[in-house]
Amino acid sequence: MAKSKNELWEWTKALIIAVLLAAIIRYFLFAPIVVDGLSMMPTLQDQDRMIVNKFSYQIGEPERFDIIVFHAPEDKDYIKRVIGLPGDKIEYKDDTLYVNGKAYEEPYLDEFKEQVVDGPLTEPFTLEEIIGQETVPDGHLFVMGDNRRFSKDSRHIGTVPMEKVLGNTSVIYWPIEDVKIVK
Asked: What region holds the Peptidase S26 domain (predicted)?
C-alpha cells in the first residue's frame, strides 16, 4: 500500500512540474499563434501556424523588417512587418520605401508587385501625413503588412508602442507542407 501511495505522489509531482514548465515556457518564452487573414500574403498565408519568440525582445530591440506580433487596439493580436524604428523618417513614393531618405528594397513584395497592373502596390505617403509627426516616436514602431492593399497596419492604427509587442515570429510549423523559416 505504501509503495503505491509513494508512486502516485511521484507521478503527481512530475505532472505538476511538467504543467508549470509548460506554462512558464508559453508565458515567457514561446507561444503558438495562428495567422488570421490575408494581410501578410504572400509571405504568410491565412491559417499558418507560427511560433512567437517572446524572449527575443527581452534581450534586444526589434530590427527593421522583422515580423512581429503585437496587441492591436481591437483587443486582437496582429502580425506585421517592422518598417520604421524609433526616430526613423518613413516615406513611400513610386512604390519604393524610403527610410531617412535612403531607398530600401523589399524583396518579399516582388511577387505581388509583378501582379499589380492598376497602380502601385503601396500608395504613396509620408509618416507626417499618417501620424502627424516627421519621425517614429521613441518607444514605438511603424509596421505594415506585406499585402499592402489589404492590410490594417500603422497607416490605419498608428505606431505600435513597444510595450504592446509580444515578440517576433519567423517559424511556420503548420501546415506540414509549408514548414519553413520566413524572412
From this structure: 8-174
In the CATH scheme, what architecture does the domain 31-181 have? Ribbon (2.10)
Residue 106, CA distances (Å) to 50, 51, 71, 85, 175 in order: 22, 23, 25, 16, 26
Q: Which residues are catalytically annotated?
A: 39, 80
Instruction: Mention every residue, 6+ apart, whose C-beta is less than 8 A from residue 140.
Output: 86, 159, 160, 161, 162
181 or 90, greater pLDDT: 90
- CA distances in angstroms from 50 to 42, 78, 120, 155, 168, listed in the order given: 15, 13, 30, 25, 10
- Using alpha carbons only, what angle is made at residue 78 by residues 77 and 80, rounded to the nearest 5 degrees? 155
Residue pair 2/10 in contact (Cβ under 8 Å)? The answer is: no
Domain ranges of the chain: 31-181
Segment 95-153, tens digit of pLDDT: 999 999 999 999 988 888 888 778 888 899 999 999 999 999 999 999 999 999 889 99
Tens digit of each residue's pLDDT (9 = 90 or more) over 16-56: 888 887 777 666 667 888 888 888 988 888 888 888 887 76
